[in-house]
Design goal:
The structure holds two protein chains of two kinds. Chain A is of the alpha/beta class. Helices cover 37% and strands 17% of the residues of chain A. Chain A is built from eight helices and eight strands; from the N terminus they run αβαβαβααβββαβαβα. In chain A, the strands form two sheets. Chain A has a six-stranded parallel β-sheet, sandwiched between helices. A two-stranded antiparallel ribbon of chain A has the order 5-6. Chain B has helices at 20-31, 46-54, 66-78, 89-93, 96-106, 128-140, 151-155, 157-167, and strands at residues 34-39, 59-62, 82-87, 111-115, 145-147, 171-175. In chain B, helix 2 (46-54) links the parallel strand 1 and strand 2. Helices cover 44% and strands 16% of the residues of chain B. By secondary structure, chain B is of the alpha/beta class. Chain B is built from eight helices and six strands, in the order αβαβαβααβαβααβ. Classes of the chains: A alpha/beta, B alpha/beta. Chain A binds chain B through residues 20, 41, 43-49, 52-62, 64, 78, 80-81, 83-84, 87-92, 154-155, 176-177, 179-180, 183-184, 187-188, 191, 193-195, 201, and chain B through 1-6, 8-9, 36, 38, 59, 61-65, 67-81, 83, 97-98, 101-102, 105-108, 165-166, 168.
């Protein structure tokens, strides 16, 4: 499965969920598929913070469901995020990891040990229940677990196995302050929360 | 905030008494509408963490890495909820990338309640090395810092929390000894 195909599937099955994306290639691919600048927070190059940022968002707005789309390189930098997730198992969080086993945007350099990681075991080792962990390596496999993305499913960790595509990935370049205000204003409109005051503070 | 699918599997030790100053700090955070606290402990702030955990005004999230606390607070900010990260000097030193990459890139401000180790009176040998560099690094990052001393300094916390919002970057609320 190509990343674009996986993201197309996710976008087709998305019904208002908030999305947080990871470094370069994931951010760029999600933007190419969705062109979303309202309900996606492109958390570029956070070095493993996608799921924790998403957890903060999910706790702050229980009415929203958050899809935290991390990269395998980033997740390997902060695997203990699963311990905090396991403690709360927030019903409105889906932790999705793109597993392509390379640092995509920075030249497709292989991850250490060729990225042969078993994140399902890692998640379970930190306390995420086995029946909350899923894998998909094709669009058909995603179809089989479509229920995971329904808002009433509850917490899930999903490994998306994708192929390394040919060609170098152009880094995504989206201005941080612009994203903050677009996303925050969208949150205010959609959920009635107050992110900024009348001066934008 | 009803987010948990399961209750905590452990309880905080009842042996730790929350000091009057820690209670004051917690009340000041509540006054600022801070509802989410993410922490990794330092002995100087352990009773604050106990107090936060027992206080229904807060959702207290314990992390294994201080950068995670920065990430959680930044996410909570974007959801419109006040948040605070609590950590020791060492934890702040381990959080520099998250602060510069997440908070500075996206202009997100919140208070970091942080011990200021390595000052005269700190007798912990293992904290001296980080303490030697801490203030210089804080200054280099253009992070404003408010040191808690007397009652008036605690009562100034709301002004400093607002300062983090208007500056669009974290501020440090620091303590140079056990609260």
């Amino acid at each position: 499965m190509l990343l674009g195909e996986a993201f197309k599937w996710l976008d087709d099955h998305r019904s208002g969920q908030l999305v947080v994306t990871p470094a370069g290639s994931g951010t760029r691919a999600w933007y190419q598929v969705t062109k979303d600048r309202e309900s996606t927070f492109y958390l570029n190059a956070s070095m493993g913070m996608v799921s924790m940022f998403s957890l903060g968002l999910a706790i702050a707005v229980p009415e929203a469901t958050v899809w935290a789309i991390a990269g395998d390189g980033g997740l390997a930098m902060n695997p203990s995020c699963f311990a905090t997730e396991a403690e709360y198992l927030p019903t409105n969080l889906r932790h999705i990891v793109i597993m392509n086993r390379v640092f995509g945007v920075t030249g497709k350099i292989p991850l250490p040990n060729s990225g042969l990681y078993d994140f399902k075991k890692v998640a379970e080792g930190f306390g995420v229940p086995a029946d909350r962990c899923y894998e998909a390596d094709s669009v058909g496999a995603l179809d089989d677990i479509a229920h995971v993305f329904m808002d009433d499913h509850g917490y899930a960790f999903l490994i998306l196995r994708v192929e390394v595509e040919k060609g170098l990935v152009e880094p995504a370049s989206l201005d941080g302050a612009e994203l903050k205000y677009r996303f925050g204003r969208s949150m205010e409109r959609r959920f009635g929360v107050r992110v900024f005051d009348e001066r934008g503070v | 905030m009803a987010i948990a699918q399961k209750p905590r599997q452990y309880v905080f030790s009842p042996e730790v008494n929350v000091s009057a100053n820690s209670k004051l700090l917690i009340d000041m955070l509540a006054e600022c509408k801070i509802e989410i606290a993410a922490s990794l402990p330092d002995t100087w702030i352990m009773d604050v963490l106990h107090g936060l955990d027992q206080d229904p005004r807060f959702t207290h999230i314990i992390v294994n890495r201080e950068e995670s606390a920065i990430g959680i607070c930044a996410g909570a900010f974007m959801g419109g909820k006040g948040s605070a990260a609590l950590m020791g000097t060492s934890g702040f030193m381990a959080s520099i990338y998250a602060i510069s990459k997440i908070c500075n890139t996206y202009q997100i401000g919140f208070p970091i309640i942080c011990t200021v180790r390595g000052e005269a009176g700190d007798r912990e040998v293992n904290h001296q090395s980080n303490g030697m560099q801490f203030r210089k690094i804080v200054q280099a990052m253009d992070i404003h810092m408010h040191i808690l001393t007397d009652r008036a300094s605690y009562e100034a916390i709301p002004e400093w929390v607002y300062h983090s919002k208007i500056q669009k970057r974290p501020v440090i609320i620091g303590m140079t000894s056990r609260i």
